[in-house]
Every structure is written in C-alpha cells, then in structure tokens.
Design a protein that fits this description.
Layout (H helix, E strand, L loop, with lengths): L2 H55 L1 H12 L6 H26 L8 H12 L2 H10 L5 H12 L19
Helix pairs in contact: 1-2, 1-3, 2-5
C-alpha cells in the first residue's frame, strides 16, 4: 500500500469521524433545547405559583383581589395600587410564557390552562377595567393574545377566576 493510498483511507476515516461527531452534536443540541424548554416552563410556573401563593398566605390580599375584580372604583388609591401591582406581576408571568411559546422555547400545551385563568380574571368587571386601563403596560403581542382571549373565551374559563365556590362568607 502506498503512502497516497494510506492518506486516502485516512481522509475517508476522518470524514466518517466528522459525520459521527456532527450527529452526536445534533443529538446533544436537541436534548439541551428540550432541557431549556422544561426549565423555562418550570421558571414561569414558579413565578405564577408565587403570585398565587401570596393569596393563600394573605386573607387581606385575597379580600382586596375579590373586591377589585368586582370593581376597581370601590378601592382606595392605596388598595388600587396594591391590586394593580399584583395584577401586573401575575399578568407579566403569563406574558413571559406566551412570548416563550411564540419563540418556541416553551411548551404550547401549558398555555391552555393559563388562557382560562387569564379569562377568569380579565372577564370580571374589575379585571376588564384593569385591562382597558393598563394593557399598554404589556407587549403588543401579549395585548393581542389577551384581546383574543376576551373575544373568544376558552372553554372552562368562566369558572377559572379567583372566585370561591359555594356560599359566600362575610
């Protein structure tokens, strides 16, 4: 075997090595993308859980939110500021999830219950008032998402807001 033939065999083996390496890198990249998607979903979910946990921990905040969802006009300026601050954080978490979904870095199937939750809040009198007055705080894309949710409420959204079921206590 000549030196030229050995060089040709070496090039062939090297080419196979490059192809195998590229396949391996592609598989690793796909696995990493899925891990990032799961991490993004977990992060956004944790932000929403944190916002909801505030209500579980505070009867005062729950009362404030329930009154605000009936009408923002019945709130004092301080109460309204507190509600709007909380609502902004809650809606911003949803906005981040929808933006991630648009960019395909988030799992689409996680959005259906989020859309029902948004509808459950935004379609109340106070939620509608908040949205009409504060929608400019959010991206144009998310404004379109919420406006579509309001125009075409997802099935089940009528029961997904922060309304307690059963007899009301005073």
């Amino acid at each position: 075997m000549t030196l030229s033939e050995l060089a040709s065999i070496g090039e062939f083996v090297g080419g196979i090595g490059v192809v195998v390496t590229l396949i391996f890198v592609g598989v690793q990249l796909r696995q990493n993308t899925r891990a990032v998607q799961r991490s993004s979903a977990r992060e956004a979910g944790n932000a929403l859980v944190g916002a909801v946990q505030l209500h579980a921990d505070s009867a005062e905040l729950t009362d404030l939110t329930l009154r605000a969802l009936d009408s923002l006009d019945q709130l004092t300026p301080i109460e309204r500021y507190r509600f709007e601050s909380w609502m902004y954080c809650w809606m911003h978490s949803h906005e981040q999830e929808h933006l991630a979904s648009r960019d395909r870095s988030h799992l689409d199937e996680l959005l259906a219950p989020k859309r029902r939750a948004i509808a459950g809040y935004i379609m109340t009198p106070g939620g509608s008032q908040f949205w009409s007055e504060r929608k400019s705080w959010f991206t144009d894309y998310f404004q379109g998402v919420v406006d579509d949710i309001v125009a075409n409420p997802p099935p089940g959204s009528e029961t997904s807001g922060m309304r307690p079921k059963g007899p009301q206590s005073s």
